[in-house]
Amino acid sequence: MEQRQEAEKQEEEQALAYRDRIGFVGAGQMGEALICGFIRAGICSPSQLCACVRSEERRRRMLELGLQVFGDATLGGAAELAAASDIIFLGVKPQYLDGVLEALQPHVTPNHLIVSIAAGVRLASLEAALPEGSRVIRVMPNTPCLIGQAASAYVLGNHATNEDAAKIYMLLSSAGLAVSVEERMMDAVTGLSGSGPAYVFLAIEAMADGAVAAGLPRDKALALAAQTVSGAARMVLEGSGDGSLTHPALLKDRVTSPAGTTIVGLAELETSGVRGALIRAVKAAAKRSENLG
Ligand SMILES: NC(=O)c1ccc[n+]([C@@H]2O[C@H](COP(=O)([O-])OP(=O)(O)OC[C@H]3O[C@@H](n4cnc5c(N)ncnc54)[C@H](OP(=O)(O)O)[C@@H]3O)[C@@H](O)[C@H]2O)c1
After folding, report:
1. How many angstroms does the Cα of residue 26 sit away from the middle of ligand 1?
2. Domains of the chain, start order
3. Whole-angstrom Cα distance, residue 28 to residue 272?
4. Å from CA of 29 to ligand 1 middle
5. Which residue of 24, 25, 30, 126 sits with most ligand 1 atoms within 8 Å of its CB, as the best mutation to test the pocket?
6. Pyrroline-5-carboxylate reductase dimerisation domain: which residues (predicted)?
């Protein structure tokens, strides 16, 4: 009985999300990744989506994806987008956010849920720039959202409801992993998963370079390097078979045989300070996010 009620509740929540019209103020790298992630997941159709764009290139791309398109948010686009949306994603760079919020503010109603993906911008500043009582959620997604493999974190503002929490979880988890965090953790999330795809791209490129130097053709080196990273990550996420994470140190120990090739490679990484470099990279990006706020 309890299970049936739970299933009915979930269906009801899903139906709510399916009906929402979602607007994107700014549809660049991250905005497009979210749009494509949602469409690909089937969580909403292009006819439920719209976007404010500035450049002709962005307009063409959004039309190609089947979205309704409005112009520059600060030149009238925000009003049109607000009228056509229930959920509004703020997808501009942090330095453009003030202007966008000023343009959007008069058009935000109690029916709107505002979702900011801007790095470093605090809920308090977002809420202060919007009408009193606005329902706001801060999200840090990442670009693998494009292929349904996002790692996203979110935190609710003061006036966001449980229903809003269910909606954002459903949207984000349709395109990857979604976790709720406290706001004080958002800078760390930004330094880790928000910026992290770039660290991994660099690692894949460098590993492939090493293989090319050792005699492998470039295309095969790149494919093997990327699949190695993907497979290793899946072992941490799924290797236990019961949904719990497997500690990477355990997996590493399992693949290092005495006097083997892997331990020699690992020793080289440790000598080069790769572990420390990654720790410093995440901390530096987190600090940068803190300074943006
Ligand atoms: N990229 C990531 O990996 C990532 C990850 C997590 C969070 N974020 C956050 O996502 C946000 C967007 O980053 P991004 O990398 O997607 O930047 P982006 O590629 O530059 O996209 C931002 C888009 O906003 C548009 N825009 C700016 N002002 C506008 C206005 N007044 N009206 C309509 N459109 C406007 C820009 O138009 P133009 O094309 O004309 O410049 C651009 O297409 C940032 O706040 C960032 O912190 C990014």
Report:
1. 5
2. 2-186 (3.40.50.720), 196-292 (1.10.3730.10)
3. 36
4. 7
5. 30
6. 183-292
